[in-house]
Amino acid sequence: MNIVLNGEKYEVFKEDITVGELLEELSVKWNIDLSGAVVLVNDEIVKKNKWETKKVGKDYHLEVLSFVSGG
């Protein structure tokens, strides 16, 4: 299944995936902690308490924003 992730096409290999599952996959792939990320699905913010129930569908547009501090 294809989605648009942060403006780029991205292939998801699981058809019935939740936002939480996708973030787990991305955390491993990108080697960053996304537990504090902000997630938008089709331009709507998905609150963290909904990550495990909000499904991601074909051609959905997702933005995953993670804030990093540094000096």
Automatic annotation (TrEMBL):
InterPro entries, A to Z: Beta-grasp_dom_sf (IPR012675), Mopterin_synth/thiamin_S_b (IPR016155), Thi_S (IPR010035), ThiS/MoaD-like (IPR003749)
Pfam families found in the cross-reference section: ThiS
Entry-linked Gene3D superfamilies: 3.10.20.30
Domain of life: Bacteria
NCBIfam families according to UniProt: thiS
Name of the protein in its database record: Sulfur carrier protein ThiS
Species this protein is from: Fusobacterium necrogenes
